[in-house]
Amino acid sequence: MSDNPPASSASLWAPLAKYVPKNSFDYVVDLLNRHTIFMKVTKPKKSRAGLYFFDEKNGRHAIYINGNLDKLNFLITLIHEYAHLVARVKYGRSIKPHGKEWKKTFQDLMRPLIDPAIFPEEVLKCVKNHMNNPAASHFRDKSLVNAISRHYSINSSPLKPSTSVSDM
C-alpha cells in the first residue's frame, strides 16, 4: 500500500478549512497529504482534545480531533496528533508517546506555524514558550490556554466552526 495519497486528495481536506486559521490551511493540507490518513472531527470528549493511532485492521493512520475547539486550539491539537504519526513512521512504534522523539517532531512541525499571520501576537509568545518543551497536552500550559481564551474574549468571536461534528 502506498503511503502517498493521490494528488486530487487536497480537495478531500476542504471541510477542514473551517476548523483552522486561514493562513495555516495550505500547510496543514500539505502535511495531511503526505500520508494515508483517516481523520474525523468528533463530538467533544472531556478526557482528550485529540487522538492519534495506527489502525492495524485498515492499515492507515487515524486522527480524531474534538469539533468544539476554537481554530487555534484545533490547529495545535491537530499538529500534536500529526506529530505522533510522523514520529511513529520515523522512529518506530516503540517510542514513548510524548518522549524526546515526539517532542522534536512536534517542534519541527510547529515551527512554520510560529507566525503572526497565524497566531495573534498575544498568543504567539505563549506558543513559542510552549514549544521550547511541549507538554503532553498544551491545555496543561495555563499561560497558553489563558492567552488563547483572552484573544477570543477580546475579539468576541470564538471562530468555532459552524458544526461541531464532521467526517472528513
In short:
With 168 residues, this protein is an alpha+beta fold.
Annotate the secondary structure layout.
Layout: H1 25-32, E1 37-42, E2 50-55, E3 60-66, H2 71-91, H3 100-110, H4 121-132, H5 142-154, E4 166-167
Parallel strand pairs: 1-3
Antiparallel strand pairs: 1-4, 2-3
Helix pairs in contact: 2-3, 4-5
Give a quick set of tags describing it.
alpha+beta; disordered N terminus; 168 residues
What do these coordinates show?
- The protein is α+β, with helices and mostly antiparallel strands and 168 residues long.
- It has one domain (7-163).
- The protein contains five helices and four strands, in the order αβββααααβ.
- It has helices at residues 25-32, 71-91, 100-110, 121-132, 142-154, and strands at residues 37-42, 50-55, 60-66, 166-167.
- A hairpin with a 4-residue loop joins β2 and β3.
- The longest helix has 21 residues, at 71-91.
